[in-house]
Amino acid sequence: MRPRNPILLAALFSVVFLGFAGFGPAQTSQKKAPQTRWEAKSYSQFLEIPGAERLGSDQCQACHEASYKSIHHAAHGLRKLDCEDCHGNGSLHPGSKDYKEIIQFRERTAEQANGVCLSCHARNEGLLNWQSGRHASQNVKCIDCHQVHAAETKLATFQESNAKCESCHHKQAAQSKLPYHHPTREGKMACADCHDPHGGAAANNLRGDSVNQLCFQCHTEYEGPFTYQHAPVVENCTKCHTSHGSVNRSLLTVSQPMLCLQCHAAHHNGAGIPLLNQCTSCHSAIHGSDVPSATGGSVFIDKP
Ligand code: HEC
Ligand code: HEC
Ligand code: HEC
Ligand code: HEC
Ligand code: HEC
Ligand code: HEC
Ligand code: HEC
Ligand code: HEC
Ligand code: HEC
Ligand code: HEC
């Protein structure tokens, strides 16, 4: 990228001086960072249009009034980015026969299209895992989720954000329509509350070091530590719960008593009546307890 526009230069400089080095073009940043295969790569190559010079946004406006207007309502326009910061230098484009000498994101491969976005965003903290994530390796484009010419570049509402995810992830979309589900469908929660769409260190891009660490972010009451722990709870919440939706109350993988009978034998009360219904009507502290039973230990009868 060769910014000639003084406003753009000023904008980039102020951004760098304010410490947001993430938004400088990747190849000029002096920030020390591990040289991974991808960081070593100069994303600016994805902006190059051989032989083209910069025209300036005013020229583009003359023929693309609608796009000019829309970007100026969006985050990038408000940050005074030029058209050519994303579409490449434009001088060959109006003169060319088929108007092809310009960057068209839909026509490009994912690597080429995303490369343009990453020329500025590669060092955003939130995007550091992008290249190692499944979305990158499966050729998902930034613009599959972000509409940069729309009024909101960021996915502003949970509904909007979840609809994007569900347009590709049909299985989870169907599960979220089951009677018991996290309130993604109601727009009270985002798929992205649990998953980082930009990739992540944990499996399934979970926003936590493990499944349980993720769940505890919102369900803190089950974190304990309890004097008497229930082994499967400590191990993994998904031993008993699904995340995306279930026909069973409380998002249980299997309904009671079968849930418990997968690991335990049924038992009788003193009068020899089998207790084959809702095990947790007695074992209500199933996630752990600090209250010992009469016989010592705990059978998770009393909530702490
Ligand atoms: C003289 C008029 C003219 C100028 C100046 C001009 N364009 Fe275009 N541009 C066109 C025409 C005509 C097309 C082809 C229209 C179509 O296919 O819908 C086009 C196509 C495009 C496309 C592809 C549209 C698509 O549907 O994928 C982009 C992107 C684009 N121009 C961006 C720019 C940018 C950025 C500038 C400024 C550097 C610019 N244009 C300057 C006339 C112009
Ligand atoms: C932040 C990067 C960025 C900036 C800045 C930007 N564009 Fe775009 N533009 C895009 C992307 C990405 C698309 C593809 C949108 C899509 O297909 O969803 C696009 C699409 C277009 C199109 C095709 C029609 C459409 O809306 O799909 C035209 C024409 C266009 N841009 C012109 C411009 C002009 C003119 C400017 C400056 C006033 C500009 N763009 C600034 C990224 C940018
Ligand atoms: C020339 C540099 C540059 C390019 C290229 C660029 N961006 Fe940005 N982008 C910025 C800056 C600067 C901001 C504002 C930073 C902020 O909000 O903190 C921004 C903000 C954003 C935001 C946050 C918007 C918000 O509402 O907070 C998203 C999402 C985004 N860009 C996506 C993209 C995508 C997708 C592309 C490629 C089509 C792209 N950007 C290309 C510089 C760029
Ligand atoms: C699978 C959907 C998806 C894809 C693909 C995606 N994003 Fe995002 N992006 C989101 C969502 C959802 C948010 C808002 C939630 C958040 O902050 O993580 C977001 C937020 C952002 C933000 C603002 C917050 C931040 O982390 O700075 C930027 C910038 C951004 N994305 C850039 C990009 C770029 C660049 C790409 C391509 C390399 C990309 N995104 C690909 C879904 C996506
Ligand atoms: C354009 C299609 C597309 C969109 C939109 C999309 N994804 Fe994906 N996603 C994929 C593909 C393809 C894969 C890899 C194949 C698979 O695992 O299903 C994937 C994989 C995943 C994985 C598994 C990651 C791993 O490490 O195994 C998660 C989690 C995920 N996506 C979450 C999301 C979320 C959350 C959103 C919305 C913010 C989203 N996706 C939007 C296409 C998409
Ligand atoms: C409450 C947290 C949570 C929410 C909300 C959530 N997920 Fe997940 N997701 C998980 C966990 C945990 C896993 C790991 C697999 C498992 O054990 O269920 C996972 C796995 C996945 C996978 C990879 C596994 C597979 O079966 O392919 C995809 C794709 C995915 N989720 C997409 C989504 C989408 C799309 C949404 C929104 C409709 C969503 N998730 C909402 C927690 C969540
Ligand atoms: C970002 C916050 C968040 C995270 C992370 C989260 N949850 Fe939830 N969970 C909620 C909300 C919100 C509800 C709905 C509460 C309500 O309706 O009163 C809920 C409800 C539930 C319910 C009760 C559902 C019902 O039908 O009664 C279970 C069980 C549950 N979550 C398990 C989990 C598990 C297991 C994890 C980890 C994989 C997890 N949650 C991660 C926010 C979260
Ligand atoms: C051994 C199976 C099992 C494991 C493992 C388990 N749960 Fe549960 N959970 C249950 C049962 C059974 C219920 C329903 C309790 C009832 O109906 O009285 C429940 C209910 C819940 C509820 C809903 C409570 C309400 O008031 O509606 C939440 C939230 C929850 N569990 C979160 C978690 C979290 C977080 C983990 C991991 C730390 C976890 N569970 C691990 C069996 C389990
Ligand atoms: C994935 C297997 C698994 C599931 C499902 C499971 N448990 Fe457990 N449970 C264990 C293990 C392992 C222990 C600890 C080892 C032991 O003492 O038997 C335990 C311990 C217990 C204890 C204490 C036993 C004692 O002798 O002190 C009770 C009571 C109990 N579970 C009840 C339940 C109930 C009720 C459910 C269903 C809501 C359930 N468990 C679901 C594996 C499971
Ligand atoms: C009416 C209340 C009640 C119901 C319903 C109930 N339990 Fe119990 N359970 C108890 C009591 C009380 C103890 C403690 C017995 C003792 O200490 O001698 C106990 C003990 C246990 C133990 C510890 C080992 C043992 O056999 O003493 C396990 C495991 C257990 N229950 C599993 C279950 C399962 C699985 C279900 C559902 C199929 C269930 N319970 C239903 C009251 C109940």
Description:
- The chain is mainly α.
- Among the domains are: 39-154, no CATH class; 224-289, no CATH class.
- The chain contains 15 helices and no strands.
- α3 packs across α4.
- The protein is elongated.
- The N and C termini lie far apart (61 Å).
- The model is unreliable at 1-35 (pLDDT under 50).
- Bound molecules: heme C (HEC) (10 copies).
- The site of one heme C (HEC) has 17 residues, from α13 and α14.
- The site of one heme C has 17 residues, from α15.
Largest sheet: none
In helices, the fraction of residues equals: 25-40%
Task: Please compute the radius of gyration using only Cα atoms.
Answer: 27 Å
Q: Which class best fits the helix and strand makeup?
A: mainly alpha
Low-confidence stretches: 1-35
Please give the alpha-carbon distance between the first and last residues: 61 Å
Count the DSSP helices.
15
Question: Shape from CA axes?
Answer: elongated
Report the sheet-strand fraction. Answer: under 5%
Order of helices and strands: HHHHHHHHHHHHHHH
Which distinct ligands sit in these coordinates? heme C
How many strand units? 0
On the 0 to 100 scale, the average pLDDT is 85
